[in-house]
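Bug report

Summary: structure tokens for Tripartite tricarboxylate transporter permease differ between web form and batch submission.
Environment: batch mode, default settings.
Steps: 1) Submit the sequence below via batch. 2) Compare with the web form result.

Sequence submitted:
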Amino acid sequence: MDSLYALAHGLTVAIQPMNLLFALVGVLLGTAVGVLPGIGPALTVALLLPITFKLDPGGSIIMFAGIYYGGMYGGSTTAILINTPGESASMATALEGNKMAKAGRGGPALATSAIGSFVAGTIATLGLAFLAPTLVELAVRFGPEDYFALMCVAFVTVSATFGDSPVRGLTSLFIGLALGLVGIDKLTGQARLTFGVPELLDGVEVTTLAVGLFAVGEALYVASRRHIQEEAIEPVRGSLWMTKEDWKRSWGPWIRGTLFGFPIGALPAGGAEIPTFLSYSTEKRLTKHPEEFGRGAIEGVAGPEAANNASAAGTLVPLLALGLPTSATAAMMLAGFQQYGLNPGPLLFAERPELVWGLIASLFIANAMLLVLNLPLVGLWVRLLAIPQPWLYAGILVFATMGTIAAKPSVVELTMLGAFGVLGFLMRRFDYPIAPVVVGLILGPIAEAQLRRALSISLGDPMILLQSPISATLLVIALIALILPFVLKGLNRFKMNED
């Protein structure tokens, strides 16, 4: 009942005119960037971080969440109409959605995608409202050694989840951890890795790193690709409305997709790709129309889209309750919290309940806005695909530079922005995941502070990490998560050699 009262209070915050405006701007921006291939919600939030640093924290974070939800919706439009997922989580949708569009059923495909996203997002947001406080109650009992072990789990799972190679993921993480060491050591007051540059005494700005890696790096990478194959856009033919048979075949996949997406999204190594493909394979096994799969089965759109949006709400559970990001966009939102001096976790629920519950309540409003906006404005979203890429990415570079100057006017900051942009380009070029760098910079100093606090309490005895049952369990989980990808890779090679 406490969660219901808190949610009702959050609703009074969310329906304030300025917060409604922030939510509307967020869902519109999110849908637009979801439609544009290559420009995801993580890049958009990164661009807006330096621009919003003087705005209201609650409204800005509501807008970031709206961008996240909108990006999940928008990615399905391009997946269905041009067979190009705007987001990696929409890859499963493209398998059947584009076949439906080519068969003249693009309207029902977009409709089941939008309605399924609304149903899943609403159910999953309710799950977030009830599960996050339970996690907070558990996290309140954590000591510094337990928090350090939890950070280790986050480091390993994030590194192993993003990208195809765990070694590359760990390399990206260590780059972020190294950047987190720059600045004044809070315990001793000594300068570390500043190389005599006064501007580095405060450490590396998360916003500069995020904008450089995501925005500038992406612009340089796109500019380097000279030969880009154009995809033909499938026009939306026929009615946008679903038939009675379409409804009958969609409601089951919507519920099952939600049940896949929310819990997997809430796991430290979750993400949206796993539940979407699990949902697709499940619907393929359960369908009464197996002959339609591969030719445009509506279940193959309804289930993955529901899983996709449910996982977005799921990723907010560890972010809000524990301060752990499990996706690139969640990492950017964590940077947004820190920009305003807020640290997601148990204390945030106690210190700023109106902000947390206002954010959760605003997700219901954002979901309703997306449902109302998505179908009538399909034509507008499709026209966005006609924007020439040189104009688009030139605009991104201008916004990235102006935003960085506005947040911290300094030649050193602009130089770092350019350097991080080149680093982002090289990481994309050689297939290194980018999100672990940001996670390492944000969580690295927190993990260091908790470890040193634990060692101070134990008078320097490292065995304190194994004496706490919670800490020991989490460290074992981190060790398993670190070793497992290498074991699975070795088994796959062994099987291939046998064949």
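Above is the batch result. After comparison, the two runs are identical; trailing whitespace caused the diff. The chain has one domain: 1-226+237-497. The chain has a mean pLDDT of 80.
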